[in-house]
């Protein structure tokens, strides 16, 4: 029997040469910032500045600036935290897990995805600090540091402490991984540059010489870091979910949370990557590198993870009924039919129904539809966290304490602050860093037969 | 001459020309090392050293914290030991309310009021208002000295002015609330004797004139009887809120609770019927409660009279027929428990009270549950006299008026007329301590001391006396009012001497004692109370019921179609005299759970007919017009209210009480009707109510009304079931594990604590908890709990460490969750005090990242404020939601200065308990089971080299509780009251105690957090088919 393999679709289209790759990516770094970039950057910085007012007000006056109360002790703060952490999942997944699985299509998107991860984790990390009543103490008391308070130590039983470790580990590994990947590209820019730019990029590239030995070490380090980062992709959101899963509150106390949170994180992370990549690709004219093939593959990941969270939502309801626990049953009925029904149904529509549209090839290969749905998914995922946190807390065991949560301007402002921060960082990245991993793209340039060049 | 010039040597060194000396000869301090180098200028190093030092010194000086000096006593006052509290027996008596109290002082500052256990009347118990009244001492809006013509003056001027003005004024009226002080009356009498034409007019804001007037009609003597609810097996109340505000609620609550406590040994309880228009605290505790319209209330009383008369074979009276549910049943029960039955009415209509007297007479209650021999003196107000006074005042027939510690402009039905008439008197004087609605209108204000700064005596009941003594030197230039009367009478004796002399000449001669007067005085002052044997004659009826009955049947109707307004009193604010105490404003009303407002209570039916809705805090306003007077008030939908009835509480709408109370709510006293010769709190005609549609927010601490049928929260049953099975109503959750169902406590991740010394616990009897909320205020005072103001309560951020959860029953089927959220139109009410449950498997402790909340070796879940970083994870994970977060800085913050006066004013801060930290912004707090008291009790026992005895230590809530619903103690001590109540037999040091009392349960037992607080099932004395 003879098997004929089909010809692989090329990962990079347009018949790009190595020089083209270098040029297409580096020219954005080398060119003067254009007006569009300035406008985008200033808008982000403006949002950041506006949001800072809320941050300052919160730190100055107290957490009372937010809409929280005796019953709902967390709302937008932790919702935003989990949301940003979730978004920060795609980068590492794409670079580490897909690297291990030899998914070469990842090479043109991993750089931006990783950058997004790091910025999202920075945004996420704002909330655990800002949501503290006394951040000036909590920022370091939450770390197991030697101290002069006697034998005072942190509480290793607390999932919040696990969070501290999980997030900081994830952030460190992601940052190192991202930076290692950047070194050869910085060197490329350095080699093309003159003057001050040459000095700066020279410093950034750590004296990369492009020797075979360097490449060999580069590959080894990437592989080791990928190996380290892979369990982190699973652990970070697992541990974030422990904040809820280990508690006694109906709607939180759920063993399904770890896989459900990880799937949700990948789901939202891919959606965010899509949102950003579609824009970057268009603005930087990188259609040959980030092809429809990429978009379609990512959409498929979204269908899968979206379906997983959908099943998780339904499973929660089944278990609530099956458990026979009154408070648990009420918590779920209340989610769907209580005062926050709109949040629940927004979540269901955005996360469960809308991704199913990607079963249609026409939709999944449409830039406009993908862009729209990627935003819908992120809205849905925000609502998911809101539903879990607020609707579970607002009506728990004792009806006497049941209350509503209404956000204040400061809640909105702090959220805006992180948006401002995220996009400010992202635009700086897009301008000054190579948005596509040139070195790795070059390695996949000839991965398929030249004959299919069109 | 030159040759003769003497040379003085500085020393032998100079004479000898010592080289060392010569080198340093021109330096001022040759013995010190040189700061100069050879060239005579400072070296660079020296310069830098000096510069560095000065900079460092200057900057250190700048950072230095202000020095707050602790100065030890040069001569230590006797009895004042730093950090050791002193207790003084005294008396609270204002506006007709009475309590014998013990005042706790620290370093000379009164900081807490408890009940005096030696008092046979309140037996160590207080209510919310008495607890809260201590803050009024430290009200910075008290006036600093006497006022004359609106200006701060001095006593000499004021006295001269008052004396001359009073001498020429003609008829002088002294207007006062009930005076129960014999010496005060004597001082006033002395003033009257000196001045000639003086009359004392007493009125009470919460008038019970109807009762005294009826006693005069029916028994021939205008007295207020003593009631003994503890002796009653059947209690019928027509609108008398005897647990909340009627006459002497502390006393009645304690008596009532004795009949409500049940145990295996005494499986019996009283049966309580309540017929009322608005849902009162007493009504909420009733076994059978029938909403009736105020216009029917007289007829309901007549119907009961006729029903009893039939059984007694006495003549019935003719009365219009009226259909009242449970009335026949009540009559049957009353008759069955003859002579142990009690019928009371809250009506101020003397005719109705005559019929009540007649009913009690038929039931043989006179002398058992109602005592007209050992009369009470709490209410001597005479509405008719007061009415006459107002008329006279406006007609210019009153020459001089002295308002003795009363505020009729605010709290009398015809207050506006008094306000207008004061100027018509030649001289007007007030002794009030603040420039309130009345004293701001008079010519002279001669401010009285606060009651905690005063000497006085009281005779609350015949033969019962109590003393008040100062617990602090007067804070302002005030003078005891009695002394003012004496001064104006030309007597310069101090009131203290006057008082003592009065006792020496009077009471001392009536007691059998071998000691001297000083010994007798000291002992009485120490005890605070004195009971003397007094002969008492039972009163026999001299009047006739038929005249009253026919008046009642004319005045009331069975089918009034128009709207009716019932003006009621709230437990926290009472008559409004202490409205400026923010603790009381923020106290969540046990029925409506509202704070910082009064509001028009409407029925569910009226609300739905008028399109008025209420969800969470959102509500709307209504306009109420009563005989021409209109007020705009917010609406609160109140289940249990009679159809066509509206309710409005007094005590609000103060305009000159101070910054806390001014502008809070509306003044319902204005709507009272004094036209029938008595102050009528039930307005049954001329009432119009219309919804205005304007939106409004009422700050309620609990917005969800029902317990959603959750048996893990409320477990209840009826008496007959309890008698069959003591565990009736209990729910026993079972968890499936390894093929069998086991108790939740059998499955645990925890290894469990061991408490080798003490194991503190609390048992709460939901049968005796009447919801009065005295515990809540007591806790607030004891633990420096912040007041956060209306807006923050609206934001659901009140700080109460102990709250009363009030649940209504719902008629909806258990599977209709949204219908279950709606209370029945006449619901059963359950009160559940809720505070930190001090869980042995505490969910809060495991989740705190910094171990700020940990478990003590005595079973307490302790909160370390200093360590808290404020993640609020503990509060989220608390199944009971009892943790409170400091969302803002509540102390020393101008944003909260207007409400949280105890933590913002310099004066207000004097009330703070120095043993308890004032919490900082951003930290979590909660009930600590008064750990400071536990610590103090243990230290005291240690000092006396003994073990802690049961009763040595008690928590503030349990101390205040008038019904002993809360019992605190050591669960490791099998002899402690709490162990006995819970029937903990085994002497184990394990955290898990085997509780054998069938009624005791843990709230949310199924999650096995293993609380150290147990609740006893609520048992109602109802027929099973009606439960």
TrEMBL record, chain A:
GO cellular component terms attached to this protein's record: plasma membrane
Transmembrane regions listed in the UniProt entry: 37-60, 80-101, 113-133, 160-182, 221-240, 260-279, 300-322, 342-360, 367-392, 412-433
Keyword ATP-binding: no
Major localization listed first in the record, in broad terms: membrane
InterPro entries in UniProt: NrfD-like (IPR005614)
Compartment(s) where it occurs, according to its Swiss-Prot or TrEMBL record: Cell membrane
Keyword Cell membrane applies: yes
Lineage: superkingdom: Bacteria
Membrane topology field: Multi-pass membrane protein
Keywords: Cell membrane, Membrane, Transmembrane, Transmembrane helix
Pfam families reported for this sequence: NrfD (PF03916)
Protein family: Belongs to the NrfD family.
Protein name, as recorded: Quinol:cytochrome c oxidoreductase quinone-binding subunit 1
From TrEMBL, chain B:
Domain of life: Bacteria
UniProt cross-references to InterPro entries, sorted A to Z: 4Fe4S_Fe-S-bd, TAT_var_transloc_signal_dom
Domain 4Fe-4S ferredoxin-type residue range list: 760-790, 827-858, 859-888
Record CDD domains: MopB_CT_PHLH (cd02784), PsrB (cd10551)
Transmembrane region(s): none
Cited PANTHER family: GLUTAMATE SYNTHASE [NADPH] SMALL CHAIN, GLUTAMATE SYNTHASE [NADPH] SMALL CHAIN-RELATED
Protein name, UniProt field: Molybdopterin-containing oxidoreductase family iron-sulfur binding subunit
Organism: Algoriphagus yeomjeoni
